[in-house]
């Protein structure tokens, strides 16, 4: 006959299994996940729901294509038994490829709970341009006006642009000020030859006096000296700016004849800098299976 204490210990696992909610599961027991896009949300219990699929690349890349379905496969554990590593696959246009695919699930009782809520997992994924995508979307590939090519900011280009705009504003202001000053001088009343002026009688070149002396040879009217003309520094500033931009944008400009707008793949949308993207042209793009890899986190 089995003692009562021993029988209770043997029955304990059964009681634990019975007490565990049916919607709680260990990720190590999950072999695969199927996630859907187009606004599909996860299940939730303790915290709010999240999108099943969410692109976390830069906005210009995410807007190119919406992933409809992604399937993730359990590739085994990492540091711990429940630190599951995933490989996720989706069908993408040839211009894009998956990079990272991180699975985020809701811990059943807390973020540290090894059990997660069934249906609470979503994927945050990143995409990148393939070589074909870099040729089709050079503006995205090169990262914009002030990108240094490594995901950072080209501070030299930014500071040069600010300085150039400041010089340009100063030149325009000086031109307007000088033009206004010259216009004010030309509107002043001139003294009549008989000596009478609107301010009263004053000395002048009257009919009884001698004519005013002729201007000195080589002299010019003072009104011309007040008129602003483009000078050396304004020309130098304009030439330097043109040369700088021609050199810094050369890599992007030689691609612009191919496609000036961002457009979108698989859906219509207007381009930022050129032709509108059309779904008819994008649907003709060949598809390929792209795979990304990631780990697990809990919320």
Describe the protein.
Helix 5 runs antiparallel to helix 7. The strands form 4 sheets. The chain has a 4-stranded antiparallel β-sheet with strand order 2-4-5-11, with no helix packed on it. Strands 3-8-6-12 form a 4-stranded mixed β-sheet. Strand 9 and strand 10 form a beta hairpin. It has a domain of 141 residues. The relative contact order is 0.16. The chain starts with a helix and ends with a strand. The protein is α+β, with helices and mostly antiparallel strands and 299 residues long. The chain is built from 9 helices and 12 strands. This is Store-operated calcium entry-associated regulatory factor. It holds the Pfam family SARAF. Its main location: endoplasmic reticulum.
Features:
299 residues, alpha+beta, 4-stranded antiparallel sheet, calcium, transport
Q: Would you kindly provide a brief summary of this structure?
A:
The protein is an alpha+beta fold.
List the topology elements.
Blueprint: H1 4-19, E1 24-26, E2 32-36, E3 53-55, H2 59-62, E4 69-77, E5 84-93, E6 96-105, E7 115-117, E8 122-129, H3 131-136, H4 138-142, H5 155-186, E9 196-197, E10 200-201, H6 222-225, H7 232-248, H8 250-253, H9 279-283, E11 287-294, E12 296-298
Helix pairs in contact: 5-7
InterPro entries: SARAF (IPR009567)
Transmembrane segments: 155-177
Membrane topology: Single-pass type I membrane protein
């Amino acid at each position: 006959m089995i003692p009562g204490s021993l029988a209770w210990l043997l029955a304990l696992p059964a009681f634990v299994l019975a007490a565990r909610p049916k919607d709680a599961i260990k990720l190590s027991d999950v072999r695969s996940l199927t996630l859907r896009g187009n606004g599909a949300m996860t299940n939730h219990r303790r915290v709010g729901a999240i999108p099943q699929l969410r692109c976390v690349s830069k906005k210009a890349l995410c807007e190119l294509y919406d992933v409809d379905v992604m399937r993730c496969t359990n590739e085994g554990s990492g540091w711990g038994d429940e630190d599951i590593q995933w490989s996720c696959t989706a069908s993408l246009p040839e211009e894009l490829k998956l990079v990272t695919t991180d699975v985020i699930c809701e811990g059943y009782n807390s973020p540290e709970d090894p059990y997660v809520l069934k249906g609470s997992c979503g994927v945050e994924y990143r995409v990148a341009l393939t070589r074909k995508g870099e040729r089709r979307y050079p503006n995205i590939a090169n990262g914009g006006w002030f990108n240094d090519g490594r995901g950072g900011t080209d501070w030299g280009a930014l500071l040069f642009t600010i300085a150039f705009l400041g010089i340009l504003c100063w030149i325009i202001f000086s031109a307007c000020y000088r033009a206004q000053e010259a216009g004010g001088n030309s509107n002043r009343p001139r003294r009549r030859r008989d000596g009478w002026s609107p301010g009263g009688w004053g000395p002048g070149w009257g009919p009884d006096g001698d004519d005013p002396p002729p201007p000195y040879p080589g002299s010019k009217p003072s009104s011309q000296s007040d008129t602003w003309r483009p000078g050396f520094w304004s020309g130098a500033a304009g030439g330097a700016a043109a040369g700088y931009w021609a050199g810094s944008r050369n890599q992007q400009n030689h691609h612009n004849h191919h496609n000036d707008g961002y457009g979108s793949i698989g859906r219509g949308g207007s381009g930022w800098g050129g032709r509108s993207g059309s779904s008819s042209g994008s649907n003709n793009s060949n598809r390929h299976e792209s795979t990304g890899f990631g780990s697990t986190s809990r919320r």
